[in-house]
Structure formats: C-alpha cells, structure tokens
Amino acid sequence: MIKKLYNKKSKDILIENLEAETFNRITCSFYNYIKINSPFDFRNKLYSLFHTLNIFGRIYVADEGINAQISVPSHNWANFLKTISEISELSDVQIKKAISEGISFYKLVVKVKKEIVAYRIPKNKYNMKIIGKHLSTEQFNSAINKEQTTIIDMRNIYESEVGKFKNAEIPQVEKSKDLLPEVRRMLKGREHHQVLLYCTGGIRCEKASSFLINEGIENVKQLKGGIIQYAHDIKKNGVKSKFIGKNFVFDARLGERVSDDIISNCHICNKSSDIHRDCKNDACHILFIQCQECERDLNGCCSDKCKEIASLPIETQKDLRKNRNSPDKRRYFKSPQL
User: Going edge to edge, which strands form the sheet with 220-223?
Assistant: First the structure.
C-alpha cells in the first residue's frame, strides 16, 4: 500500500536518479473523453498503479476524462498495457508512442483538473458525442488538396512556430482558453468550407471539432492520432510529409523532428533555428527559441540580465526570486506573426 500519493523528492535528486537508470524508457501518450464519476478516487488509483510500475509523466484527470503523457520503463511495458486494459475507463484508448526518444519526464504527477483541455467553454457549447470525422494520414493528405478547404492548427502559436502543415492557418494565441474564440473568428464567412483540424495527439481537436459543429460549421474533420500518429505513418509507409519542421511536445524534449525543414529563427539573433529552451534563470524560465551559438554566449539564458542572475550563487538566486515585487508573468517570448 502506497502511503503517499505524490512525490516528495527534490528536482535535483529526481534527475540524478533518472540519469543513473540502466534501462530504457518509452515515452507515450493517450487520452479518453469519458465520464469519470469520482476524479479524485480515479486519480489516486492511477497514481498507485503507475507508481508501482515506476512510470513518470504528467496526467490530468477530470470528470470529462483523462489526458496523459508518460514515460514507461521498457521492461514494464507489457505490464503497463495489461494494467491499462484492466481499467474500464482506459481499456480502449489509443496509445501513441513518441516519434523520438530521450529524457521526457523525471517524476510522476497526476492532477485533478476542471477540464482535460483547458478551453474554458461552457458545457452547453459542445457535445463529445458529436465530433468531427477522423481522417487517417492518407485521407488527411488527400483532403488538404481539395477546393474550399481550410486547414486550422489547433495548437498555441509557439508550437506552430517550429512545425506545421503547409498552407495551415495559425491562430495567433498563446493560451488554450483563447484558441476557440479565435478559430471561430477566423472561420467567419467560411462556414461552408471543409475544415481540417490537427494538433499534437488529437485531444484538442476532439473538443474543438464538437464546439465548431455546435457553432454551425458542419463539415469539420480531424487528423486521427494527431501529428504523432501522422509522423509514424509517413515513416512507415514512405510517404512524403506535408507537415514541415518539428512537433512541439510538452516535456523535457520540447520537440520531435518530423521533417528536416527548419521554419523558425532564433529569438536572440534571428538565425535559422528551431531549438526551444527554457531560460536557465529560474526567476524567468521563459520558453524561447535559441541557436547553439547564442546558447553558448548566454549560457542558455534569454538575455544578458538573466545570464548575470543565473551565474549568482543558488541561495542568492532564491532570495532574489522571493523578493521580486512585480514578477514578469510572461511564459513565452512573443512569437512572430506566422
């Protein structure tokens, strides 16, 4: 019986333990829109089961379902699949392995949320029993070329900045709560178009398609399995990718390469680069794109000021963070218009 249902170790210790592991891990994701009657009980059950299997990752549970990105020890993969199959709420989920491997998570976090996708729209604005038609990779590639078709990237702009489908329209928003109103605005006057949606793994398109159908846009379709499944399919079938660049991911890797194209620039010097980093000044920790040369010059920071702060003793940095009067609430560099 596990007495504690959350991690109590420091980040440094967790990373040290992870780096000392002598086995490989498999990064994967899954989601399911399904009624969960007691999210807190379900959360505790899931934490206990996954903790036993030494699974790391980030999982959100809500009364509308579950959204999970996790890292599973390869020797526990079969046990993980068996565990999932025995949980009624998860028995039929599509588990998508990552496009590329690498250290993704260093601890297990399972949280109860109001929504598994934070669109913050009233429940009467969507119905998860009425969603856009799923298209396979081949069907999506074919649909892109049809007349009166609008392709919408259902991700935040900092994700689209490093990778997107050719001819896709990019909502100029950095937060999920702003996405659906912006997409609805973009589609004004094109309600009769075939609307193709895509996102990282499919979860955002599910609810977005339902919302758009509720708004009267009936011909809404979505890429099944998202960019992750698309990348696997084109590699397996030898099909030319219509997605260019990298697939942004919300873990320590910050991206998976889909094509060799680099479509973004360093936020510091404007040279070609698609490497996302978090500023090494923990008081800033802003997400930005930085080339290797600027990374060396600024020691992984986003500015000379942050470089100076990050070079101070750790205790001094902690004191500075505690004494900030007006913290900068930005999470990302302001992305250029795409």
Answer: 133-135, 220-223, 194-198, 149-153
Domain 11-112 carries which CATH code? Answer: 3.30.70.100
DSSP three-state, residue 273:
coil
Q: What is the mean pLDDT of each run of 10 residues along the chain (338 residues)?
A: 62 82 95 97 97 97 98 98 97 94 92 96 95 98 96 96 97 94 97 98 98 96 98 94 97 94 97 97 94 97 95 90 61 56
Which residue among 28, 199, 301, 302 is the active-site one? 199
Give the global pTM: 0.90
Residue type at position 30: F
For residue 69, give the H/E element and its range.
Answer: strand 65-73
Two tokens, residue 129: 């029993």
294 counts as catalytic: no
Cα distance between residue 255 and residue 104, in whole Å? 10
| List of residues 6+ apart from 142 with CB closer than 8 A | none
Q: How is domain 123-231 classified at the CATH fold level?
A: Oxidized Rhodanese; domain 1 (3.40.250)
Question: Domain coordinates of the chain in residue numbers?
Answer: 11-112, 123-231, 262-338
Q: Please name every residue paired with 286 in a beta bridge, in sequence order, or none if there are none.
A: none
